[in-house]
């Protein structure tokens, strides 16, 4: 900690939007140097993500349309943590719903702040192994049009470096998961 | 692409908030299966990030308070791309303002979507080398209370794995930058 550091003082908080999964609010704050300003924040319950790896060492990803960036992105299966839910529960549900796999072996990778400039979301990342492909792929949620993609570590790293559209939480989780696999065997 | 895939149809767009650096809007859309719903989006001009590395192989990071997560995070220097600005210009300014370094050698790492669930922000990441420490550290912007931290690649990786508070864009950029350094010698 910086000696003498004091966090900003909250003067006012306005809720601009309340959604199904997130809220948007703006806080007016006074800084230690007495300057005042507005800061925006998405209030989000957190996201849970799985890095699913098959016995053959293939990473299971989903390619889905994201209207925010008006295109399709490669991502690991993930979902929003529901009220009263632990991230472990969220991701066990999401990996089945999104990717059509059940995992029998789970390991915590880490958690990290996703976009702290304007969001309080943390991503809870898990390594999912001992995979069982579901016989009946589950019906996808209305807003998800998803293609399943299997890639080796090398293929995925090359795709990331070549600029294949992919998102930050998936890149982080891939690089953090890979050494756990190498150590294992 | 999934054969026959069609993106959702935009029915209505509402701007809830207009800020200095970002807007927040909600889009009502109709999906190919005819279901309708609301989707939230932070409209952001993009972020530029530097991975500054000293001659001795130390990574230069900043530790700063983020009110969104009510704590201090370790991050690489970064800033919001201004209107009419290229990300390369943004980051040359920000690395001086935030970290107090000027870099004489720049290399593009990659770009990636930061939080495509609710934001259109892309991070443009650059490797910054041949660093010159500014004699007079610049005055930080009002809203930034920043500590400069130098770490070796090994120290930084250990910190990330040990759960040191750090954000997604910095983790991604670290892992993507490191092999570029190793290849260089």
What features would you describe in this structure?
Two copies of one chain form a homodimer. Chain A has 185 residues and is of the alpha+beta class. Chain A has two domains: 9-43, no CATH class; 47-111 and 125-184, Nucleoside Triphosphate Pyrophosphohydrolase (Alpha-Beta Complex). In chain A, 21% of the residues lie in helices and 43% in strands. In chain A, the strands form three sheets. Chain A has a four-stranded mixed β-sheet with strand order 7-4-9-8, with helices on both faces. In chain A, strands 1-2-3 form a three-stranded antiparallel β-sheet, with no helix packed on it. The longest helix of chain A has 17 residues, at 168-184. Chain A is elongated. The first copy, chain A, starts with 8 loop residues before the first strand and ends with a helix. Chains A and B meet through strand 2, strand 3, strand 6, strand 8 and helix 3 of A and strand 2, strand 3, strand 6, strand 8 and helix 3 of B.
Strand content of chain A: 35-45%
The CATH topology of the largest domain in chain A corresponds to Nucleoside Triphosphate Pyrophosphohydrolase
Q: Largest interface, with Cβ-Cβ < 8 Å?
A: A-B, 66 and 66 residues
3D shape of chain A: elongated
CATH top-level class of the largest domain in chain A: Alpha Beta
């Amino acid at each position: 900690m910086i000696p003498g550091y004091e966090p900003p003082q909250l003067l006012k908080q306005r809720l601009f939007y309340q959604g199904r999964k997130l809220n948007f609010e703006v806080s007016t704050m006074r800084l230690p140097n007495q300057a005042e300003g507005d800061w925006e924040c998405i209030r989000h319950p957190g996201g849970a993500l799985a890095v699913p790896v098959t016995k053959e060492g293939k990473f299971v990803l989903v390619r889905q349309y994201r209207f925010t960036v008006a295109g399709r992105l490669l991502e690991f299966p993930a979902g929003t943590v529901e009220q009263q839910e632990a991230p472990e529960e969220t991701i066990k549900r999401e990996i089945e719903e999104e990717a059509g796999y059940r995992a029998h072996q789970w390991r915590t990778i880490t958690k990290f702040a996703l976009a702290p400039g304007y969001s309080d979301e943390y991503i809870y990342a898990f390594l999912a192994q001992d995979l069982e492909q579901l016989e009946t792929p589950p019906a996808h949620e209305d807003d998800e049009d998803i293609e399943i993609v299997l890639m080796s570590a090398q293929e995925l790293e090359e795709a990331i470096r070549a600029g294949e559209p992919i998102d930050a939480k998936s890149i982080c989780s891939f690089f953090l998961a890979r050494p756990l696999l190498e150590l294992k065997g």
